[in-house]
Amino acid sequence: MPFLAVAYAFTVAMCGTTLPTPLYGLYQRQLGFSSLMVTVIFAVYAIGVILALLLLGQLSDSVGRKPVLLAGLVLSALSALCFLLEGGLPGLFAGRVLSGLSAGLFTGTATAAVVELAPRRWAGAAALAATAANMGGLGSGPLLAGLLARYAPDPLRWVFAVDLMLVAVAVLVLLPVPETVPRRRGVRLRPRRLRVPRPVRPAFVPAAMAGFAGFATLGLFTSVAPSFLSRVVGVNDPGVSGAVVCAVFAASTGGQLLMGRIGVRRALPWGCVVLVAGMAVIFGSLATASLPLLVAGAVIAGLGQGLSFRAGVTMVSEQSPPERRAEVNSALFVVLYVAISLPVVGVGVMAVTLGLRQAGLVFTGCVALLAAATAVLMALRPVAPGGDAA
User: Fold this and answer.
1) Of 37, 286, 289, 301, which is most buried with the most CB atoms under 10 A?
2) Tens-digit pLDDT profile for residues 83-101
3) Residue span of the signal peptide, if any (predicted)?
4) What does the buried/exposed string (b/e) look like for 178-194 if buried means 16 or more CB atoms within 10 Å of the residue's CB?
5) Distance CA 355, CA 250 (A)
6) Prediction pTM value
């Protein structure tokens, strides 16, 4: 079915964005750079995502879904080639920027295409299918790369050769997919406005705060988690690193699915409470160098992130006027992708001066404080349906 083809392509594109996660340790040993440089390499990915969101976020509404999805796969393939032919830091930086551009193109376009192509009887589950493809891809990337790094003879080449084959299959299955949007003339690329209307701000602020805390956590696990495992916990197995990161995204998917049962206005503050609990467990894992605690903390934090993230996006969409919804959602996602990059660079800077363990402890404390403040804000000023703060 066409929507399954798009879901597969979505999964492959997002998988490519997290493939390097368990390989950073190998690159460090090969190229001799620091943990700070690992976080910088990771952070440039967010630059690509933000550029794509600002300049190209509405492109598929004009040229059609399929051309944008195919362009995203081309960028994903170019990113894999940069890593496959890597000759130093410039190749890693180029690969991450291209990967970010691919993700920025895919996130909104593929979600819309899955919903539009889903059979009528599956209409209610189409958005969840898009979410599962997104988070499943993000989680499968580190797991696939970790397993290949453990068992393949040349992991830094095999991982991206396999990725290129998956991308090629995605292109082939996308080609016969029907277009759902008529093409318009006079396409113009210009930055999208990022203004949030005043009536939406009571919903936007807690959603952005919760999202910042949750995406900062995802950024930590997809950048320096392997360093924590090797230098703090004493586990150097890339397969284990990939499995831990995969657990975060699997739990996030579970949290997003659970949100529908809990309800938007309860899920956001309770997701923050669960995220605080996850940070406490991660804090304990770093303090005691415990792998089981780190895995448990990853699962708990991922669950809280998923709950609060989907609740925040849903709440902001509900409060936004239809003619401003894309603009407001873009503003929210720019905040989230800033959150996935800048805090982990801060961890890298602190690791140089304080040490990696202390940097992780400070990070978990800051995220817990932000999530707790969001939960308190929601308790004091709940957002009522229709956009008025209660």
Assistant:
1) 301
2) 998 778 889 999 999 999 9
3) none
4) eebbeeeeeeeeeebee
5) 30
6) 0.85
